[in-house]
Design a protein that fits this description.
The structure is a single chain. This protein has about 300 residues and is α/β, with parallel strands linked by helices. Helix content is about 40%, strand content about 20%. The strands form 3 sheets. The chain has a 7-stranded parallel sheet with strand order 3-2-1-4-5-6-10, sandwiched between helices. Helix 5 links the parallel strand 5 and strand 6. The protein starts with a strand and ends in an 11-residue tail after the last helix.
Length: about 300
C-alpha cells in the first residue's frame, strides 16, 4: 500500500514516514523544497513536489495513493486567517481525491479550544466549524466525509509531541529560557499540558490508518497532565538556569508566541483510543526527555 503524507519532513511527519516504511508501506511525501525532497529520497520514499497552496497536486496525490496522512500546516502566527483558509482548501482537495474510494485519511488537529475545565475526550466534537474557524474546521470537514465513502479519522495531538530534535513548543520554551537567563512559568504554574513521545504518536497514526473506523477521533496522548511549572523546573535544571514566576501580563514579552499556549491547560484523555486500537505508549515521558538533554541543543523556533 502507498500512503501519501503531507508534512512528511516535519517533526511528526518524519517520524510517521519512518514508522510507515518500517512497517512495509510505500510512502510518497509532499515536498516544497529540494532539501525536503532529498531527505525523503534518502529514506526510500517517493516525492510529490508542491505545497498546501496547490490543491490540484494534493488531489491527484491523494487519488494515486491507498491512504493519506495530513500533518502539514503553515503555522504562520501572523496570518491566522490565511492559515485557516489554506488548511480548509487543502483538506477539501485531499477529500476530493479520495471520494468514493473507501480509502483512509488521517487529519491532524490539536486539543486546544475543544472543551474547558476538563480533559478532552475522543467523544467531544470540535466546535470549529466552517471556513473562518480554527484550522478552517478541517476536523469536522474530514469526519463528515465518511458519508462520501472515505474512511476519515481525526488524530488530536497533545501540545507537546516531544523527543530529541523537537522544534515545537518545548524547544520554544528552552529558547526563551536561554534568551532571558531564567526558566519561567506563568502565574502559579498550575496550567497543565498533555504529552506524547513522537515515536508513540507515529505508531498511533499507523494504527489509525490500519484499524480505525471512519468518523473516529483518536488522541495522541501518553501523559494526560504535566504541570507547566514542572516543565519549567526541568528546563531550568537542564540548562543550569534559575526558575522564576512570570506574571500572565508579561508572558508574551518573556516567552514570545508560545506564552499564549503555556498559560493554558491543554489536556486530553486517550482511554478510548487505547481500547479501540490497542495502542500503548512506550516512549519516555516529557520530563524524562528534558532531563536526558533532549532540549539542550539549540534549534530554530520557526
Amino acid at each position: 500500500m502507498r500512503i501519501f503524507v503531507t508534512g512528511s519532513t516535519g517533526w511528526i511527519g518524519s517520524a510517521t514516514v519512518d514508522e510507515l516504511l518500517r512497517s512495509g508501506y510505500e510512502v510518497s511525501g509532499l515536498a516544497r523544497s529540494d532539501a525536503a525532497a532529498a531527505a525523503l529520497e534518502a529514506k526510500g520514499a517517493q516525492v510529490v513536489r508542491g505545497d498546501l497552496d496547490q490543491p490540484d497536486a494534493l488531489r491527484e496525490a491523494a487519488r494515486a495513493a491507498d491512504g493519506v496522512v495530513h500533518l502539514a500546516n503553515k503555522h504562520d502566527w501572523a496570518d491566522e486567517e490565511g492559515n485557516n483558509r489554506t488548511e480548509r482548501a487543502a483538506v477539501m482537495a485531499l477529500l476530493a481525491g479520495l471520494e468514493g474510494s473507501g480509502k483512509p485519511v488521517v487529519v491532524a488537529n490539536g486539543l486546544s479550544g475543544i472543551v474547558k475545565g476538563r480533559a478532552v475526550l475522543e467523544s467531544d466534537s470540535s466546535p470549529a466549524v466552517g471556513p473562518g474557524s480554527d484550522r478552517g474546521g478541517s476536523e469536522n470537514l474530514a469526519l463528515e466525509a465518511s458519508s462520501r465513502l472515505i474512511r476519515s479519522i481525526a488524530v488530536r495531538f497533545a501540545p507537546s509531541v516531544h523527543g530529541c530534535g523537537d522544534w515545537g513548543f518545548v524547544n520554544w520554551l528552552t529558547a526563551a529560557a536561554r534568551r532571558n537567563g531564567v526558566s519561567g512559568y506563568i502565574d502559579d504554574g498550575a496550567a497543565a499540558w498533555s504529552a506524547v513521545h513522537v515515536t508513540d504518536a507515529a505508531r498511533l497514526i499507523r494504527l489509525a490508518l490500519e484499524e480505525a473506523p471512519g468518523g473516529t477521533r483518536v488522541h495522541a496522548v501518553a501523559e494526560e497532565s504535566v504541570l507547566t511549572r514542572q516543565i519549567a523546573e526541568e528546563v531550568g535544571m537542564a540548562l543550569g538556569l534559575p526558575v522564576v514566576r512570570v506574571a500572565a501580563a508579561d508572558a508574551a514579552r518573556h516567552f514570545g508566541v508560545v506564552g499564549h499556549f503555556f498559560g493554558q491547560t491543554m489536556t486530553g484523555s486517550s482511554a478510548a483510543t487505547r481500547e479501540l486500537l490497542g495502542w500503548q505508549p512506550t516512549g519516555p515521558t516529557l520530563l524524562d526527555d528534558i532531563r536526558s538533554g533532549a532540549y539542550t541543543q539549540e534549534l530554530p523556533t520557526s
